[in-house]
Amino acid sequence: MKKKLATVLAGGAALMLTLSGCGDDNSEELDAWAKKVCDGVQPQAKKIQAANASIQEESSDKAPPKDVKETDSKAFQDMSDAYRQIGRVIDRAGPPAVENGEKKQKDAVKELNSIADSYAGLKNQVDKLKTDDQAEFADGLKEIGTELQKLSGSGSDALKRLEEGEVGEAMRGQASCKADGGTGASPDA
What we know:
Largest sheet: none
Radius of gyration: 17 Å
Strand content: under 5%
Shape: elongated
């Protein structure tokens, strides 16, 4: 169950890699916008990756429930904070200088905040799990895994629309958007 949970969490990290894995710059203004976004997103993408790694490390069937609970709780909080911060980065950058830039920006920020709220909700669910009965704890994790599966499969459309066309090209031109090693994983991977 923990391995499935870790796999689903990897989908959330892929969402960040899609945004941060974002050629050619079409304008100085768009390039400046992309640099602002990429520079702000990269540290948050690393936090999400670290949170995923911590869950995977603790996903052993032999890990005590208390340790799993603590790790998952912290990881979900870290992910919530990171997604919210990415929303702030995009909000502060303003709309990109492209057609429907303001709508794309607002939709992406709204989506990122929704994802952050969902991870905060998962943290609250984990925090309520009792660790004294391993079977009961496993059942609780299974429910959280189901919610996580829904979360990982939902709502990356606004982010994809934000990074379409000229915006994506400008982002791909930024060193900080290439810092993930060029991974262009799909958020639903």
